[in-house]
Amino acid sequence: DSNDDIEDVSLFDADDDVSRRSKKSKIRHPVASFFHLFFRVSAIVVYLLCELLTSSFIACMVTIILLLSCDFWAVKNVTGRLMVGLRWWNQVDDDGRSHWVFEARKVSAQGSKTSSEAESRIFWLGLITCPMIWVIFAFSALFSFKVKWLAVVVMGVVLQGANLYGYIRCKVGSRKNLTSMATNYLGKQFLRQVRFPVLETLR
């Protein structure tokens, strides 16, 4: 009987492990995950193919700016909250002063997060990769003297960079935390640079 009981417990634990893994890998918000990538990827595709699709610069510019604006709104107000439990916004207090609020969802009492690892990977991959692509487009437009496209590219860098900055602030914490992290990193780099010449002179 004791052996049967032990086997039952081990099978129950195995089922728990399988269910936990499936919850981590499962995409709980497929629509939000789709639109998190749809608008920003579509803006990049339209920018790359617009000269092949049409000769109208105005139509391309308006389409790209609309896609970037939809992406900014969707990522800031919907996908960040659903996929990773983060949100940021501007708030005006009673004195008329505006200040930025950066929040992260608290872990539940059971210690489990409501967002899955798959959604988190999709969110941060799209959030980090696309602004880097727009920065590359900005340097390309600048060095190839495509002045008319520079305004569109700068709009992409600003809108997607703003979301990236806001969610990094939500993830890391307040500005003091960012400052302390930067100070600690620079301090470590400085100590490394000072340490190696001292060791070489001692040798």
Automatic annotation (TrEMBL):
It is a multi-pass membrane protein. It is found in: Membrane. Belongs to the TVP23 family. Pfam families: DUF846. Coiled coil: none annotated. The keyword Transmembrane applies. It comes from the Eukaryota. GO terms for biological process: protein secretion; vesicle-mediated transport. This is Golgi apparatus membrane protein TVP23 homolog. The chain crosses the membrane at residues 30-49, 55-75, 122-143, 149-168. One of its GO terms (cellular component) is Golgi membrane. Keywords: Membrane, Transmembrane, Transmembrane helix.
